[in-house]
């Protein structure tokens, strides 16, 4: 079964009951609970380049037509069509050149009978002309055979005068781009809800818009937990491993459209983890942790956030302000802040991993505010949104899925910042990100939660075994309507994950897939 629109679970409030963890949640129930509590961020007015990757919250209409005037689509000569009618190589038409018209020209010569103006691509069509003859259809004013290009004005200014022989006719309208042929005055060119990429930003600039109103890219803080983790690039002591999850999940968050911050791995100490999370709340719309959510004696995330009353977060770093420490300056941020303007200062052990960080601006509600929109704006009661659950509560659940059975979700801090706690095995963390974190990021952006495509595909090899009652996600390679499983079901097999471009979905009711059977496939690329 493909992960479709999730079914909303029964709403629960208050502390997680002692026996509640024994309940097994479906994938769809867990996702629905997350999406029910994550709302789009408040809009901001941003300059065009700062709005790349953001979602429009307004329709954009054209104040000017595109193009704004009739112009030439070729380098050549602006002529009257009747003057070149019947022209051929054997019987060329000779016209007097009355001047040059370059792109950006203001005062234009008038083309009369028997005359032509040398014109460049994009230059306005002069009065009297109704067609453009490409320079290749002429002698270029040299008196010889067909020209291949114009001579540079700086070295041959005489090309703007003299005579030109035209070897082919050009009917009226030839090589002329008419005013408004692309966009007319008042046309709606971009709709609210559009994700802004290079082409959309170029269009907005072309119609003269310097800024647009958008939902900003969500700020996502990613941290791994585990005393066994050491940074890549350093020597491995006995019994230790390199931290890979924080890099994979930060990259995944950026790929999903977020402004992502990676935090150095936190040791297996509940107080240290809570302090690290608290330091990050000033610049987080979403916190993602990996590891420490299962049933072991050192599962620090579960220890730190299980149940109510674990110590209220202030949402502020040391000294009542920003998180402490030093941080590399984001590209394009000469002021030395983080580059997004939503909370100053840096965080202990933090790396800014998004060189395209937004420049300075402030979200409604101030730094550290999750910025969830309410009906009627930030100052209106959230009549259309469900009331948030108590802050500093994270529910830990068992899901009917493989990999990724242990999961956590809740809100922390004074603004109820969403926190998603993922399992620590690399494949489990990646699959959990795709199923739960990516939709949450898209919901914060105001996009439909399901961003990945799902298709049906033939599985020639089949799947020999799948756990009953659990939805299994296997790595695979998809091509031409077929998908091939890669590696085994082990949640530690990173090579197969790196080679995969799809996830094979085996539904809860199936314990195998026969060779040649059809399966749902989530496309990862």
From TrEMBL:
CDD domains from the UniProt entry: MoeA
Gene3D superfamilies for this protein: MoaB/Mog-like domain, MoeA, C-terminal, domain IV, Molybdopterin biosynthesis moea protein, domain 2, Molybdopterin biosynthesis moea protein, domain 3
Listed EC numbers: 2.10.1.1
Region spans: Disordered: 1-25, 143-162, 309-395
Q: Which reaction does it catalyse?
A: adenylyl-molybdopterin + molybdate = Mo-molybdopterin + AMP + H(+)
Keyword Magnesium on this protein? yes
Q: In which pathway does it act?
A: Cofactor biosynthesis; molybdopterin biosynthesis
The alphabetical list of record keywords is:
Magnesium, Metal-binding, Molybdenum, Molybdenum cofactor biosynthesis, Transferase
Q: What does this protein do?
A: Catalyzes the insertion of molybdate into adenylated molybdopterin with the concomitant release of AMP.
Family membership noted in the UniProt record: Belongs to the MoeA family.
Protein name per the record: Molybdopterin molybdenumtransferase
